[in-house]
Amino acid sequence: MSSRAILTHVYGWLLLLPAAVLLIGFTHYPAVATLADSLFTVGTAVRPSRFVGLGQYHGMLDDPIFWKVMGNNAWFAVGTIPTSIALALAMALWVNGRLPGRGFARMAYFTPTILPMVAVANIWLFFYTPQIGLLDQVGALFGAKSHNWLGSPGTVLGCLIVMTVWKEAGFFMIFYLAALQALPPELEEAGRIEGASRWYFFRRVTFPLLMPTTLFVLVNATINSFKLVDHLFILTKGGPDNASSLLLYYIFETAFSFFNPNYAAALTVVLLAMLGLLALIQFGVIERRVHYR
Amino acid sequence: MTARPNLSWGRGIEIAAAWLLAILWLMPLLYAFWAAFHPTAYAVRFDLTAPLTLENFSRAWEYAPFARYFLNTFILVTMTLAAQFVLCTLAGFAFARFDFAGKNIAFALVLVQLMIMPEVLIVENYRTMSRLGLVDTILGIGLPYMASAFGIFLLRQTFKTIPRELDEAARIEGCSLIGVLWRVYVPLARPTYLAYGLVSVSYHWNNFLWPLVITNSVETRPLTVGLAIFGAPESGVNWSVISAGTLMAVAPLLLAFLLFQRQFVQSFMYAGIK
Question: Chain A, 219-238: which have a CB under 8 Å from a chain B CB?
Protein backbone atom coordinates (compact mmCIF):
# COMPACT_ATOMS: atom_id res chain seq x y z
CA MET A 1 0.00 0.00 0.00
CA SER A 2 2.61 2.51 1.00
CA SER A 3 4.87 1.64 -1.91
CA ARG A 4 1.90 2.33 -4.18
CA ALA A 5 1.42 5.69 -2.51
CA ILE A 6 5.05 6.52 -3.16
CA LEU A 7 4.65 5.46 -6.76
CA THR A 8 1.75 7.91 -7.11
CA HIS A 9 4.03 10.76 -6.08
CA VAL A 10 6.78 9.58 -8.40
CA TYR A 11 4.52 9.09 -11.42
CA GLY A 12 2.75 12.38 -10.79
CA TRP A 13 5.97 14.34 -10.77
CA LEU A 14 7.49 12.41 -13.67
CA LEU A 15 4.49 13.18 -15.85
CA LEU A 16 4.64 16.82 -14.87
CA LEU A 17 8.41 17.14 -15.21
CA PRO A 18 8.81 18.02 -18.93
CA ALA A 19 6.19 20.77 -18.77
CA ALA A 20 7.50 21.99 -15.42
CA VAL A 21 11.03 22.45 -16.75
CA LEU A 22 9.82 24.62 -19.63
CA LEU A 23 7.36 26.56 -17.49
CA ILE A 24 9.98 27.36 -14.89
CA GLY A 25 12.55 28.16 -17.58
CA PHE A 26 10.39 30.56 -19.57
CA THR A 27 7.89 31.93 -17.07
CA HIS A 28 8.97 31.74 -13.44
CA TYR A 29 12.72 32.09 -13.81
CA PRO A 30 12.51 35.08 -16.21
CA ALA A 31 9.93 36.77 -13.99
CA VAL A 32 12.26 36.52 -10.99
CA ALA A 33 15.34 37.40 -13.05
CA THR A 34 13.54 40.49 -14.36
CA LEU A 35 12.91 41.61 -10.81
CA ALA A 36 16.59 41.07 -9.93
CA ASP A 37 17.83 42.83 -13.07
CA SER A 38 15.74 45.87 -12.35
CA LEU A 39 17.86 46.50 -9.24
CA PHE A 40 21.09 46.89 -11.24
CA THR A 41 22.50 49.34 -13.76
CA VAL A 42 23.48 48.37 -17.27
CA GLY A 43 26.98 46.94 -17.41
CA THR A 44 29.31 48.13 -20.17
CA ALA A 45 32.82 47.10 -21.16
CA VAL A 46 34.34 49.83 -18.99
CA ARG A 47 31.78 50.01 -16.22
CA PRO A 48 30.44 46.79 -14.83
CA SER A 49 26.83 46.51 -13.78
CA ARG A 50 26.30 47.65 -10.19
CA PHE A 51 23.55 47.40 -7.63
CA VAL A 52 21.38 50.50 -7.39
CA GLY A 53 18.45 49.19 -5.38
CA LEU A 54 15.36 51.07 -6.43
CA GLY A 55 17.39 53.52 -8.54
CA GLN A 56 15.79 52.40 -11.80
CA TYR A 57 12.36 53.00 -10.30
CA HIS A 58 13.32 56.47 -9.12
CA GLY A 59 14.48 57.18 -12.65
CA MET A 60 11.16 55.89 -13.94
CA LEU A 61 9.21 58.40 -11.85
CA ASP A 62 11.17 61.18 -13.57
CA ASP A 63 10.85 59.65 -17.03
CA PRO A 64 8.25 61.65 -18.98
CA ILE A 65 7.99 58.92 -21.62
CA PHE A 66 7.04 56.38 -18.96
CA TRP A 67 4.16 58.57 -17.79
CA LYS A 68 3.22 59.22 -21.39
CA VAL A 69 2.94 55.50 -22.25
CA MET A 70 1.07 54.76 -19.01
CA GLY A 71 -1.41 57.49 -19.91
CA ASN A 72 -1.69 56.10 -23.43
CA ASN A 73 -2.33 52.63 -22.03
CA ALA A 74 -5.11 54.02 -19.86
CA TRP A 75 -6.72 55.89 -22.76
CA PHE A 76 -6.31 52.89 -25.01
CA ALA A 77 -8.07 50.72 -22.42
CA VAL A 78 -10.87 53.25 -21.88
CA GLY A 79 -11.31 53.64 -25.62
CA THR A 80 -11.32 49.98 -26.60
CA ILE A 81 -12.85 48.03 -23.73
CA PRO A 82 -16.37 49.44 -23.15
CA THR A 83 -17.02 49.84 -26.89
CA SER A 84 -15.86 46.37 -27.84
CA ILE A 85 -17.77 44.77 -24.96
CA ALA A 86 -20.99 46.60 -25.90
CA LEU A 87 -20.57 45.62 -29.55
CA ALA A 88 -19.71 42.05 -28.61
CA LEU A 89 -22.88 41.77 -26.54
CA ALA A 90 -25.03 43.19 -29.35
CA MET A 91 -23.40 40.84 -31.85
CA ALA A 92 -23.96 37.82 -29.62
CA LEU A 93 -27.63 38.70 -29.04
CA TRP A 94 -28.18 39.12 -32.79
CA VAL A 95 -26.37 35.98 -33.80
CA ASN A 96 -28.07 33.98 -31.06
CA GLY A 97 -31.53 35.31 -31.98
CA ARG A 98 -33.63 34.72 -35.05
CA LEU A 99 -31.72 37.03 -37.33
CA PRO A 100 -32.14 36.29 -41.03
CA GLY A 101 -28.73 35.34 -42.41
CA ARG A 102 -27.20 34.93 -38.97
CA GLY A 103 -24.56 32.50 -40.25
CA PHE A 104 -23.27 35.24 -42.50
CA ALA A 105 -23.35 37.80 -39.71
CA ARG A 106 -21.49 35.48 -37.35
CA MET A 107 -18.84 34.88 -39.99
CA ALA A 108 -18.48 38.62 -40.62
CA TYR A 109 -18.17 39.47 -36.92
CA PHE A 110 -15.70 36.71 -36.17
CA THR A 111 -13.39 37.01 -39.20
CA PRO A 112 -11.17 39.82 -37.83
CA THR A 113 -10.33 37.58 -34.86
CA ILE A 114 -8.47 35.01 -36.92
CA LEU A 115 -6.42 37.57 -38.88
CA PRO A 116 -2.95 38.44 -37.56
CA MET A 117 -2.70 41.95 -36.12
CA VAL A 118 0.16 42.66 -38.52
CA ALA A 119 -2.02 41.90 -41.55
CA VAL A 120 -4.86 43.94 -40.08
CA ALA A 121 -2.52 46.88 -39.55
CA ASN A 122 -1.29 46.59 -43.14
CA ILE A 123 -4.85 46.91 -44.40
CA TRP A 124 -5.84 49.71 -42.05
CA LEU A 125 -2.68 51.67 -42.74
CA PHE A 126 -4.12 52.35 -46.13
CA PHE A 127 -7.31 53.80 -44.68
CA TYR A 128 -5.37 56.27 -42.59
CA THR A 129 -2.73 57.38 -45.10
CA PRO A 130 -3.04 61.10 -45.85
CA GLN A 131 -4.39 62.12 -49.27
CA ILE A 132 -4.34 58.77 -51.05
CA GLY A 133 -5.86 56.86 -48.11
CA LEU A 134 -9.48 55.80 -48.10
CA LEU A 135 -10.50 58.04 -45.20
CA ASP A 136 -9.17 61.16 -46.91
CA GLN A 137 -10.65 60.12 -50.26
CA VAL A 138 -14.09 59.75 -48.71
CA GLY A 139 -13.57 62.99 -46.78
CA ALA A 140 -12.65 64.78 -50.01
CA LEU A 141 -16.06 63.90 -51.45
CA PHE A 142 -17.60 65.99 -48.68
CA GLY A 143 -15.04 68.74 -49.07
CA ALA A 144 -13.05 67.81 -45.95
CA LYS A 145 -9.38 68.73 -45.89
CA SER A 146 -6.71 66.07 -45.94
CA HIS A 147 -5.59 65.03 -42.48
CA ASN A 148 -2.53 63.11 -41.34
CA TRP A 149 -4.50 60.70 -39.15
CA LEU A 150 -1.56 58.69 -37.82
CA GLY A 151 0.84 61.62 -37.90
CA SER A 152 -0.99 63.92 -35.49
CA PRO A 153 -0.88 63.32 -31.74
CA GLY A 154 -4.55 64.27 -31.50
CA THR A 155 -5.91 61.54 -33.74
CA VAL A 156 -3.38 58.72 -33.70
CA LEU A 157 -4.63 56.97 -30.56
CA GLY A 158 -8.23 57.23 -31.75
CA CYS A 159 -7.26 55.56 -35.03
CA LEU A 160 -5.64 52.67 -33.18
CA ILE A 161 -8.63 52.34 -30.89
CA VAL A 162 -11.10 52.07 -33.79
CA MET A 163 -8.97 49.39 -35.42
CA THR A 164 -8.58 47.41 -32.19
CA VAL A 165 -12.31 47.49 -31.49
CA TRP A 166 -12.87 46.08 -34.97
CA LYS A 167 -10.33 43.35 -34.34
CA GLU A 168 -11.49 42.31 -30.88
CA ALA A 169 -15.27 42.67 -30.67
CA GLY A 170 -15.88 39.40 -32.52
CA PHE A 171 -13.60 37.54 -30.17
CA PHE A 172 -15.49 38.74 -27.09
CA MET A 173 -18.75 37.91 -28.87
CA ILE A 174 -17.80 34.25 -28.56
CA PHE A 175 -17.83 34.38 -24.76
CA TYR A 176 -21.26 36.00 -24.70
CA LEU A 177 -22.53 33.52 -27.26
CA ALA A 178 -21.41 30.63 -25.09
CA ALA A 179 -23.09 32.19 -22.05
CA LEU A 180 -26.31 32.92 -23.93
CA GLN A 181 -26.56 29.36 -25.17
CA ALA A 182 -26.20 28.12 -21.61
CA LEU A 183 -29.20 30.18 -20.43
CA PRO A 184 -32.34 28.06 -19.99
CA PRO A 185 -34.85 28.75 -22.81
CA GLU A 186 -37.73 28.60 -20.31
CA LEU A 187 -36.65 32.02 -19.08
CA GLU A 188 -37.47 33.71 -22.34
CA GLU A 189 -40.75 31.83 -22.58
CA ALA A 190 -41.70 32.96 -19.09
CA GLY A 191 -40.81 36.51 -20.03
CA ARG A 192 -43.01 36.32 -23.11
CA ILE A 193 -45.96 34.96 -21.14
CA GLU A 194 -45.57 37.76 -18.62
CA GLY A 195 -45.66 40.21 -21.50
CA ALA A 196 -42.21 41.66 -20.92
CA SER A 197 -40.85 43.71 -23.81
CA ARG A 198 -37.57 42.52 -25.33
CA TRP A 199 -35.69 45.50 -23.98
CA TYR A 200 -37.15 45.06 -20.51
CA PHE A 201 -36.34 41.35 -20.59
CA PHE A 202 -32.78 42.09 -21.65
CA ARG A 203 -32.29 44.75 -18.99
CA ARG A 204 -33.81 42.83 -16.10
CA VAL A 205 -33.02 39.20 -16.94
CA THR A 206 -30.42 38.57 -19.65
CA PHE A 207 -27.93 41.28 -18.77
CA PRO A 208 -27.79 40.51 -15.03
CA LEU A 209 -27.39 36.81 -15.82
CA LEU A 210 -24.53 37.65 -18.17
CA MET A 211 -22.74 39.69 -15.50
CA PRO A 212 -20.12 37.01 -14.73
CA THR A 213 -19.30 36.81 -18.44
CA THR A 214 -19.05 40.58 -18.64
CA LEU A 215 -16.59 40.64 -15.76
CA PHE A 216 -14.58 37.82 -17.30
CA VAL A 217 -14.45 39.59 -20.66
CA LEU A 218 -13.60 42.86 -18.94
CA VAL A 219 -10.53 41.37 -17.29
CA ASN A 220 -9.43 39.65 -20.50
CA ALA A 221 -9.91 42.83 -22.50
CA THR A 222 -7.78 44.72 -20.00
CA ILE A 223 -5.04 42.10 -20.21
CA ASN A 224 -5.18 42.36 -24.00
CA SER A 225 -4.85 46.11 -23.86
CA PHE A 226 -1.48 45.59 -22.16
CA LYS A 227 -0.31 42.71 -24.33
CA LEU A 228 -1.35 43.90 -27.77
CA VAL A 229 1.28 46.06 -29.42
CA ASP A 230 1.88 44.34 -32.79
CA HIS A 231 0.04 47.03 -34.75
CA LEU A 232 2.35 49.76 -33.45
CA PHE A 233 5.26 48.22 -35.37
CA ILE A 234 3.38 48.71 -38.63
CA LEU A 235 1.30 51.80 -38.09
CA THR A 236 3.17 54.29 -35.94
CA LYS A 237 6.29 52.90 -34.26
CA GLY A 238 4.89 54.55 -31.16
CA GLY A 239 4.98 57.99 -32.72
CA PRO A 240 4.49 60.81 -33.31
CA ASP A 241 6.56 61.78 -30.29
CA ASN A 242 5.35 58.71 -28.31
CA ALA A 243 1.73 59.78 -28.72
CA SER A 244 0.71 56.20 -29.51
CA SER A 245 3.36 54.21 -27.63
CA LEU A 246 2.17 51.61 -25.14
CA LEU A 247 4.01 50.11 -22.18
CA LEU A 248 5.04 46.83 -23.81
CA TYR A 249 6.20 48.67 -26.93
CA TYR A 250 8.26 51.00 -24.78
CA ILE A 251 9.80 47.96 -23.07
CA PHE A 252 10.73 46.56 -26.47
CA GLU A 253 12.27 49.86 -27.54
CA THR A 254 14.17 50.30 -24.28
CA ALA A 255 15.68 46.84 -24.48
CA PHE A 256 16.31 46.38 -28.19
CA SER A 257 16.68 49.92 -29.61
CA PHE A 258 18.12 51.86 -26.66
CA PHE A 259 19.99 48.81 -25.31
CA ASN A 260 19.03 49.38 -21.71
CA PRO A 261 17.85 45.93 -20.56
CA ASN A 262 17.92 46.87 -16.89
CA TYR A 263 15.56 49.80 -17.27
CA ALA A 264 13.46 47.56 -19.52
CA ALA A 265 13.44 45.06 -16.64
CA ALA A 266 12.14 47.71 -14.25
CA LEU A 267 9.41 48.62 -16.76
CA THR A 268 8.57 44.92 -17.12
CA VAL A 269 8.15 44.66 -13.36
CA VAL A 270 5.53 47.42 -13.53
CA LEU A 271 3.77 45.48 -16.31
CA LEU A 272 3.96 42.26 -14.30
CA ALA A 273 2.54 44.01 -11.23
CA MET A 274 -0.37 45.21 -13.32
CA LEU A 275 -1.02 41.76 -14.77
CA GLY A 276 -0.75 40.27 -11.28
CA LEU A 277 -3.37 42.68 -10.01
CA LEU A 278 -5.64 41.67 -12.87
CA ALA A 279 -5.00 38.02 -12.01
CA LEU A 280 -6.25 38.62 -8.48
CA ILE A 281 -9.38 40.29 -9.83
CA GLN A 282 -9.81 37.46 -12.31
CA PHE A 283 -9.69 34.84 -9.57
CA GLY A 284 -12.33 36.81 -7.72
CA VAL A 285 -14.43 36.78 -10.88
CA ILE A 286 -14.02 33.06 -11.45
CA GLU A 287 -14.98 32.49 -7.85
CA ARG A 288 -18.16 34.45 -8.42
CA ARG A 289 -18.89 32.54 -11.62
CA VAL A 290 -18.79 29.32 -9.68
CA HIS A 291 -21.19 30.72 -7.08
CA TYR A 292 -23.63 31.59 -9.83
CA ARG A 293 -23.97 27.99 -10.98
CA MET B 1 -52.85 44.46 -31.83
CA THR B 2 -51.81 48.06 -32.00
CA ALA B 3 -48.39 47.23 -30.66
CA ARG B 4 -47.61 44.95 -33.55
CA PRO B 5 -46.56 47.46 -36.26
CA ASN B 6 -44.37 49.14 -33.64
CA LEU B 7 -42.76 45.86 -32.76
CA SER B 8 -41.90 44.96 -36.34
CA TRP B 9 -40.52 48.46 -36.83
CA GLY B 10 -38.10 47.97 -33.98
CA ARG B 11 -37.29 44.53 -35.26
CA GLY B 12 -36.63 45.91 -38.73
CA ILE B 13 -34.23 48.51 -37.40
CA GLU B 14 -32.46 45.85 -35.38
CA ILE B 15 -32.01 43.58 -38.38
CA ALA B 16 -30.76 46.49 -40.44
CA ALA B 17 -28.28 47.41 -37.71
CA ALA B 18 -27.03 43.84 -37.45
CA TRP B 19 -26.52 43.66 -41.19
CA LEU B 20 -24.92 47.07 -41.39
CA LEU B 21 -22.46 46.08 -38.70
CA ALA B 22 -21.72 42.80 -40.48
CA ILE B 23 -20.99 44.60 -43.74
CA LEU B 24 -18.94 47.23 -41.95
CA TRP B 25 -16.97 44.43 -40.30
CA LEU B 26 -16.21 42.80 -43.64
CA MET B 27 -15.27 46.04 -45.41
CA PRO B 28 -11.56 46.16 -44.58
CA LEU B 29 -11.05 42.62 -45.81
CA LEU B 30 -13.19 43.18 -48.91
CA TYR B 31 -11.18 46.28 -49.60
CA ALA B 32 -7.93 44.28 -49.39
CA PHE B 33 -9.38 41.87 -51.94
CA TRP B 34 -10.33 44.75 -54.21
CA ALA B 35 -6.87 46.30 -54.09
CA ALA B 36 -5.10 42.98 -54.53
CA PHE B 37 -7.03 41.84 -57.58
CA HIS B 38 -7.02 45.13 -59.50
CA PRO B 39 -4.22 47.19 -61.10
CA THR B 40 -2.72 49.86 -58.84
CA ALA B 41 -4.51 52.61 -60.76
CA TYR B 42 -7.81 51.27 -59.39
CA ALA B 43 -6.70 50.98 -55.77
CA VAL B 44 -8.97 53.85 -54.74
CA ARG B 45 -11.24 54.05 -57.78
CA PHE B 46 -14.15 51.74 -57.25
CA ASP B 47 -15.15 51.04 -60.80
CA LEU B 48 -16.96 47.77 -61.37
CA THR B 49 -15.55 47.55 -64.88
CA ALA B 50 -11.96 47.68 -63.62
CA PRO B 51 -9.91 44.85 -65.09
CA LEU B 52 -8.98 41.97 -62.81
CA THR B 53 -5.36 40.94 -62.48
CA LEU B 54 -3.11 38.51 -60.59
CA GLU B 55 -0.09 40.66 -61.30
CA ASN B 56 0.03 41.97 -57.70
CA PHE B 57 0.33 38.48 -56.32
CA SER B 58 3.19 37.49 -58.59
CA ARG B 59 5.00 40.72 -57.78
CA ALA B 60 4.53 40.22 -54.04
CA TRP B 61 5.80 36.67 -54.40
CA GLU B 62 8.94 38.01 -56.13
CA TYR B 63 9.57 40.90 -53.74
CA ALA B 64 9.81 38.78 -50.61
CA PRO B 65 10.71 35.13 -49.97
CA PHE B 66 7.11 34.20 -49.15
CA ALA B 67 7.66 30.52 -49.92
CA ARG B 68 10.32 30.38 -47.23
CA TYR B 69 8.15 32.32 -44.76
CA PHE B 70 5.30 29.90 -45.36
CA LEU B 71 7.59 26.97 -44.72
CA ASN B 72 8.92 28.57 -41.52
CA THR B 73 5.46 29.29 -40.18
CA PHE B 74 4.33 25.80 -41.09
CA ILE B 75 7.27 24.21 -39.27
CA LEU B 76 6.76 26.52 -36.27
CA VAL B 77 3.05 25.81 -35.94
CA THR B 78 3.37 22.04 -36.39
CA MET B 79 6.33 21.69 -34.05
CA THR B 80 4.74 23.83 -31.35
CA LEU B 81 1.42 22.03 -31.53
CA ALA B 82 2.98 18.57 -31.45
CA ALA B 83 5.09 19.46 -28.40
CA GLN B 84 2.11 21.11 -26.70
CA PHE B 85 -0.02 18.02 -27.20
CA VAL B 86 2.58 15.75 -25.64
CA LEU B 87 3.59 18.00 -22.73
CA CYS B 88 0.09 19.15 -21.86
CA THR B 89 -1.32 15.62 -22.06
CA LEU B 90 1.26 14.31 -19.60
CA ALA B 91 0.90 17.25 -17.23
CA GLY B 92 -2.89 17.34 -17.51
CA PHE B 93 -3.03 13.62 -16.74
CA ALA B 94 -0.83 14.11 -13.69
CA PHE B 95 -3.08 16.88 -12.35
CA ALA B 96 -6.29 15.02 -13.10
CA ARG B 97 -5.46 11.57 -11.75
CA PHE B 98 -2.48 11.63 -9.37
CA ASP B 99 -2.50 12.93 -5.81
CA PHE B 100 1.16 13.75 -5.59
CA ALA B 101 2.77 15.95 -2.98
CA GLY B 102 2.67 19.66 -3.76
CA LYS B 103 0.04 19.20 -6.46
CA ASN B 104 -2.00 22.27 -5.57
CA ILE B 105 0.98 24.57 -5.40
CA ALA B 106 2.29 23.16 -8.67
CA PHE B 107 -1.07 23.76 -10.32
CA ALA B 108 -1.23 27.33 -9.07
CA LEU B 109 2.28 27.89 -10.44
CA VAL B 110 1.19 26.52 -13.82
CA LEU B 111 -1.75 28.91 -13.92
CA VAL B 112 0.62 31.85 -13.47
CA GLN B 113 1.47 31.48 -17.15
CA LEU B 114 -2.11 32.34 -18.11
CA MET B 115 -1.37 35.88 -16.93
CA ILE B 116 2.34 36.18 -17.66
CA MET B 117 2.56 35.04 -21.25
CA PRO B 118 6.07 34.58 -22.70
CA GLU B 119 5.75 37.73 -24.84
CA VAL B 120 5.71 39.88 -21.71
CA LEU B 121 9.14 38.56 -20.70
CA ILE B 122 10.87 39.17 -24.04
CA VAL B 123 14.01 40.69 -22.57
CA GLU B 124 14.84 37.87 -20.16
CA ASN B 125 13.72 35.11 -22.52
CA TYR B 126 15.94 36.53 -25.24
CA ARG B 127 18.85 36.24 -22.83
CA THR B 128 17.98 32.62 -22.04
CA MET B 129 17.76 31.80 -25.73
CA SER B 130 21.15 33.30 -26.43
CA ARG B 131 22.63 31.22 -23.60
CA LEU B 132 21.06 28.12 -25.13
CA GLY B 133 22.31 29.14 -28.58
CA LEU B 134 18.74 29.21 -29.88
CA VAL B 135 18.58 32.80 -31.09
CA ASP B 136 17.42 32.90 -34.69
CA THR B 137 16.10 29.34 -34.74
CA ILE B 138 12.55 28.15 -35.26
CA LEU B 139 12.84 26.02 -32.11
CA GLY B 140 13.67 29.25 -30.25
CA ILE B 141 10.39 30.82 -31.38
CA GLY B 142 8.29 27.86 -30.27
CA LEU B 143 10.06 26.69 -27.12
CA PRO B 144 8.64 29.20 -24.58
CA TYR B 145 5.09 28.29 -25.64
CA MET B 146 5.40 24.52 -25.61
CA ALA B 147 4.42 23.99 -21.99
CA SER B 148 1.13 25.81 -22.27
CA ALA B 149 -0.78 26.48 -19.05
CA PHE B 150 -3.93 26.86 -21.09
CA GLY B 151 -3.48 23.43 -22.68
CA ILE B 152 -2.67 21.79 -19.35
CA PHE B 153 -5.74 23.37 -17.80
CA LEU B 154 -8.08 22.33 -20.64
CA LEU B 155 -6.85 18.73 -20.67
CA ARG B 156 -6.97 18.45 -16.89
CA GLN B 157 -10.61 19.54 -16.94
CA THR B 158 -11.43 17.03 -19.67
CA PHE B 159 -9.53 14.13 -18.09
CA LYS B 160 -11.31 14.75 -14.80
CA THR B 161 -14.69 14.08 -16.41
CA ILE B 162 -13.61 10.63 -17.59
CA PRO B 163 -14.98 7.97 -15.22
CA ARG B 164 -12.31 6.25 -13.15
CA GLU B 165 -13.96 2.87 -13.77
CA LEU B 166 -12.80 2.95 -17.39
CA ASP B 167 -9.29 3.62 -16.20
CA GLU B 168 -9.37 0.79 -13.67
CA ALA B 169 -10.92 -1.66 -16.14
CA ALA B 170 -8.11 -1.00 -18.59
CA ARG B 171 -5.53 -1.56 -15.87
CA ILE B 172 -7.08 -4.87 -14.86
CA GLU B 173 -6.85 -5.85 -18.51
CA GLY B 174 -3.13 -5.33 -18.11
CA CYS B 175 -2.68 -1.90 -19.65
CA SER B 176 0.38 0.04 -18.50
CA LEU B 177 0.03 3.59 -17.22
CA ILE B 178 1.00 5.15 -20.53
CA GLY B 179 -1.19 2.55 -22.24
CA VAL B 180 -4.21 3.73 -20.25
CA LEU B 181 -3.45 7.33 -21.08
CA TRP B 182 -3.05 6.54 -24.77
CA ARG B 183 -5.96 4.09 -25.17
CA VAL B 184 -8.54 5.55 -22.78
CA TYR B 185 -7.91 9.19 -22.01
CA VAL B 186 -6.56 10.57 -25.26
CA PRO B 187 -9.32 9.14 -27.51
CA LEU B 188 -12.05 10.37 -25.17
CA ALA B 189 -10.57 13.87 -25.10
CA ARG B 190 -10.58 14.25 -28.88
CA PRO B 191 -12.92 17.32 -28.94
CA THR B 192 -10.61 19.09 -26.50
CA TYR B 193 -7.59 18.37 -28.69
CA LEU B 194 -9.42 19.73 -31.71
CA ALA B 195 -10.51 22.87 -29.89
CA TYR B 196 -7.11 23.49 -28.36
CA GLY B 197 -5.39 22.70 -31.65
CA LEU B 198 -7.39 25.28 -33.59
CA VAL B 199 -6.82 27.94 -30.94
CA SER B 200 -3.10 27.16 -30.79
CA VAL B 201 -2.59 27.09 -34.56
CA SER B 202 -4.32 30.41 -35.06
CA TYR B 203 -2.39 31.92 -32.15
CA HIS B 204 1.01 30.86 -33.45
CA TRP B 205 0.21 31.57 -37.07
CA ASN B 206 -0.54 35.14 -36.00
CA ASN B 207 2.00 35.66 -33.23
CA PHE B 208 4.39 38.51 -33.89
CA LEU B 209 6.29 40.19 -31.06
CA TRP B 210 8.36 37.27 -29.77
CA PRO B 211 9.21 35.94 -33.28
CA LEU B 212 10.27 39.47 -34.22
CA VAL B 213 12.63 39.64 -31.24
CA ILE B 214 14.16 36.21 -31.61
CA THR B 215 14.62 35.94 -35.41
CA ASN B 216 16.85 37.90 -37.73
CA SER B 217 17.13 35.96 -40.95
CA VAL B 218 14.98 34.80 -43.82
CA GLU B 219 15.58 31.17 -42.86
CA THR B 220 13.73 31.49 -39.55
CA ARG B 221 11.31 34.39 -39.92
CA PRO B 222 7.63 33.42 -39.81
CA LEU B 223 5.05 35.00 -42.11
CA THR B 224 3.96 37.73 -39.72
CA VAL B 225 7.48 39.08 -39.29
CA GLY B 226 8.17 38.75 -43.01
CA LEU B 227 4.95 40.58 -43.75
CA ALA B 228 5.85 43.41 -41.38
CA ILE B 229 9.17 43.94 -43.17
CA PHE B 230 7.51 43.65 -46.54
CA GLY B 231 4.76 46.10 -45.65
CA ALA B 232 7.03 48.73 -44.10
CA PRO B 233 6.81 52.06 -45.94
CA GLU B 234 10.59 52.03 -46.35
CA SER B 235 10.34 48.99 -48.61
CA GLY B 236 8.69 51.16 -51.24
CA VAL B 237 6.20 48.49 -52.29
CA ASN B 238 2.86 49.86 -53.45
CA TRP B 239 -0.58 49.30 -51.90
CA SER B 240 -1.89 46.75 -54.30
CA VAL B 241 1.18 44.56 -53.85
CA ILE B 242 1.06 44.91 -50.05
CA SER B 243 -2.61 43.91 -50.09
CA ALA B 244 -1.75 40.89 -52.23
CA GLY B 245 1.06 39.89 -49.86
CA THR B 246 -1.19 40.37 -46.84
CA LEU B 247 -3.91 38.22 -48.36
CA MET B 248 -1.39 35.50 -49.21
CA ALA B 249 -0.19 35.45 -45.62
CA VAL B 250 -3.67 35.13 -44.15
CA ALA B 251 -5.11 32.92 -46.91
CA PRO B 252 -4.52 29.46 -45.39
CA LEU B 253 -6.03 30.36 -42.04
CA LEU B 254 -8.85 32.38 -43.60
CA LEU B 255 -9.70 29.54 -45.96
CA ALA B 256 -9.64 27.02 -43.14
CA PHE B 257 -11.90 29.30 -41.13
CA LEU B 258 -14.41 29.76 -43.94
CA LEU B 259 -14.52 26.01 -44.62
CA PHE B 260 -14.72 24.89 -41.00
CA GLN B 261 -16.46 27.94 -39.57
CA ARG B 262 -18.60 25.97 -37.16
CA GLN B 263 -15.64 24.10 -35.68
CA PHE B 264 -13.63 27.30 -35.31
CA VAL B 265 -16.37 29.19 -33.52
CA GLN B 266 -17.23 26.20 -31.37
CA SER B 267 -13.58 25.60 -30.49
CA PHE B 268 -13.02 29.19 -29.42
CA MET B 269 -16.27 29.02 -27.48
CA TYR B 270 -15.37 25.72 -25.85
CA ALA B 271 -11.89 26.92 -24.96
CA GLY B 272 -13.33 30.18 -23.68
CA ILE B 273 -15.83 28.83 -21.17
CA LYS B 274 -13.60 26.20 -19.60
Answer: 223, 227, 229-230, 233-234
Torsion of CA B52, B56, B62, B67, to 10 degrees: -80
Q: Which CATH superfamily is domain B58-273 in?
A: MetI-like (1.10.3720.10)
Which parts of A142-260 fold into alpha helices (H)? 153-182, 185-194, 198-201, 207-209, 211-227, 230-235, 247-256
Give the integer Cα–Cα distance in Å for A121 and A169: 16
Q: Residue A111: which domain range?
A: 59-292
Cα distance from B46 to chain A (closest Cα, Å)?
A: 11
Whether A73 is in a domain gets the answer yes
Contact A22, B114 (CB under 8 A): no
What is the per-residue pLDDT across B62-119, written as a single tens digit (0 to 9) for each? 888 889 999 999 999 999 999 999 999 999 999 998 888 888 999 989 988 888 888 8
Q: Is A17 within the bounds of a domain?
A: no
In a domain, A23, yes or no: no
**pLDDT band, residue A291 (cuts 50/70/90):** very low
Q: Tell whether B202 lies on the interface with A, counting CB pairs under 8 A.
A: yes
How far is the C-alpha of A140 from the C-alpha of A164, rounded, in Å?
25
Longest dimension (CA), chain B: 77
Bridge partners (DSSP) listed for residue A51: A40
**Inter-chain residue contact B18 with A99, CB threshold 8 Å:** yes
Nearest to B34 by CA among B24, B45, B25, B22: B45
pLDDT at B144 over 50: yes
Question: Do B246 and A104 make contact, defined as CB atoms within 8 angstroms?
Answer: no
* Domain count of the fold of chain A: 1
Yes or no, beta carbons of A26 and B118 under 8 Å apart: yes
Which segments of chain B belong to CATH 1.10.3720.10? 58-273
Percent of chain B with pLDDT over 70: 93
Q: What ranges in chain B are assigned the alpha helix state H?
A: 3-37, 55-63, 66-97, 103-115, 122-132, 138-146, 149-160, 164-172, 177-180, 186-188, 190-206, 209-214, 223-231, 239-259, 261-273
Cα separation of the two ends of chain A:
38
* Rounded Cα–Cα distance for residues B77 and A59 (Å): 41
- Which of A36-45, A81-90, A128-137, B45-54 has the largest mean confidence? A81-90
Please check whether residue B6 touches A, CB under 8 A. no
Evaluate whether residue A152 is within a structural domain: yes
What is the domain-level CATH number for residue A162? 1.10.3720.10
For A232-283, the pLDDT digits (tens) are 988 888 878 888 899 999 999 998 888 888 899 999 999 999 988 887 887 7
